[in-house]
Amino acid sequence: MALIELQEVSKLYGFGDATTLALDEVALTVERGEFLAVMGPSGSGKTTLMNLIGLLDRPTHGIYLLDGRNVARLRPNRQAKTRRDRIGFVFQYYNLLPRISVLENVALPLAYRGMTPVRRQKQASDMLERIGMRDREYFMPHQLSGGQAQRAAIARALINKPSIIIADEPTGNLDSNDSRVVMELLSDIHRQGNTILLVTHNPELTRYANRVIYMRDGIIVADEAKAIGRMAKGARRIYFRRRKTTDQDIVAGVSALMHDVPGKEITDLPKRRKLRHRSSKLLKRLGRRAITR
Description:
Blueprint: E1 4-13, E2 20-30, E3 35-39, H1 46-53, E4 61-66, E5 69-70, H2 76-86, E6 87-90, H3 102-111, H4 117-130, H5 146-158, E7 164-168, H6 176-191, E8 195-199, E9 211-216, E10 219-225, H7 233-239, H8 247-258, H9 269-292
Parallel strand pairs: 3-8, 3-9, 6-7, 7-8
Antiparallel strand pairs: 1-2, 1-4, 4-5, 9-10
């Protein structure tokens, strides 16, 4: 039995002429233990899809089965309990509460389960040690680097031992080194049996996934299985495709190079020669294209 199964799920916002179709009859199955990356341009429905899977929103139409149970139509309090116990969230902007320590932030989900302060702080401290941040547990969020804040957010997501981790652009605000640390942490969590759903615009991060889906206009347009460690072929094709230079581009480039600022004249002789040389090269390219046609 699949862990997650969406059957013709749609999501509409607004009404009448202002209706927006965010998801259009999406069908998706995710097996237990998969690392699924979700890619697509802004507005393609990625975050809406994650919100529905994470029980932060309800589908307008369709069925959502979580471990064979239809959770889309549960009452809000039952959805909240399922979300608390089964799903952990990692967001792009960390969402740490600024007025409490890192330890208290990580322990917060345990408070909603009624656990005593001593026990939840002990478990939160153990979780921070697991991710290599035991020495930062009494820091405030503003005292952390971006990478440290994201690792603390991952620790908070893991504290209830969820089976599903939803990470929505978790490296969007991080430099390359911190991004690598965060992704290695998510990869380690995946190796321990968790199901990871990752939303990303970065094709390099598809190396960590064993499956990639591509979305556009609220529809899943492609679904690619791949080996972990390899970049997805679809991501490489979409994001590393070379743009062809058109005749209009060349003419526009020549025009820009020959355009002087009104009221000013370029008196620097080397600079004038450089501009003239670049303009000549662009015009020659345009001429060669005309000859070969």
